[in-house]
Amino acid sequence: MADLNKVTLQGRFVRDPESKVAKSGTEFVTFCLACNRIPSKDTGEITADFVDFVAYGNTAKFIKQFFRKGNQAIAEGSIRTNMFIDKDENKRKSTEVVCDKMYFCGAKTERNEEAPVPEAQSNLEAVSNEDDLPF
Questions:
Q1: Using CA of residue 131, residue 58, residue 68, residue 102, what is the dihedral sign?
Q2: CA pair distance 75, 62, nearest whole angstrom
Q3: 12-21 contacts, C-beta under 8 A, 24 or more apart
Q4: Paired sense of beta strands 27-36 and 91-104, if any
Q5: CB neighbour class for 31 (10 Å; exposed up to 12, middle 13-18, buried from 19)
Q6: Which of 1, 35, 74, 98 has the fewest CB within 10 Å, making it most exposed?
Q7: What is the H or E stretch that residue 93 is in?
Q8: How does DSSP classify residue 23?
Q9: Beta carbons within 10 angstroms of residue 2's beta carbon
Q10: d(Cα 95, Cα 80) in Å, to the nearest integer?
Q11: Can you give the pLDDT of all 135 residues of the chain as single tens digits?
């Protein structure tokens, strides 16, 4: 049986996506989604996990163009764990989701007024050619 590393999360952008360039010259974006957990059975309290993401290529361009702090979205990707040595020579580990698909979620009125969503992209059924998709 093959290993499976697939995650789908729904949440709100904690901050605007941030564009970055790797040492190799590859452009990418990082962002964080606040994803609510199922309410506690005892108290009904809702807590959130703050999940870090990274996206590359056309997915990164799409996210940077259409999403802002507070926007709700659904992200698909895979979990990646990074091992590194910090400035104090301590071994550290970070975990992030490598986002390969991003979907609009929530009301259109929640989206950024400065970056209007073209009708064909907000209603994916209206797109006739998969090559026209921004992701």
A1: positive
A2: 12
A3: 12/70, 12/71, 12/72, 12/73, 13/67, 13/68, 13/69, 13/70, 13/71, 13/73, 14/50, 14/69, 15/69, 16/67, 16/68, 16/69, 17/63, 17/64, 17/67, 17/68, 19/60, 19/64
A4: unpaired
A5: buried
A6: 1
A7: strand 91-104
A8: T
A9: 3
A10: 6
A11: 677 999 999 999 999 999 999 889 899 999 999 999 998 888 888 899 999 999 999 999 999 999 999 999 999 999 999 999 999 999 999 999 999 999 999 877 655 554 444 443 433 333 333 444 444
Look up tokens 């992209």; give the residue.
121
* Paired tokens of 63: 């996210």
Tokens of 129: 């050619």
**Tokens representing residue 6 in the block:** 């697939």
Name residue 115's amino acid: A
